[in-house]
Design a protein that fits this description.
The chain is an alpha+beta fold.
Length: 103
Amino acid sequence: MAHAGARRRSRLPEVAGLRAFFDFHGERLSALPGRIAATTVVVTPPGIPMLVPGEATGPAGGPLMTYLRALEDFDLAFPDLATDIHGAHRDEHGRYQVEVVAG
């Protein structure tokens, strides 16, 4: 038994080393259905999370994917009025990409 002043070693990996356990990468919306999110996706307004890490994105015709495609189409048609979506990044062509767990 260690004395009161001794530091216990954590059994958890360092935060910086988590990428060694999980491989994250961005996927365009066309490849997103059925994937597992690695980030939170929040459309503002209203600012309510639509997708949280570990959650499945659902089918291509589901409400989440339909809504994200509609927002992407709007942003492509009207780039000066682009929607603010935390967790979704635009590639060089203006298409959304969301971080997913590889697999």
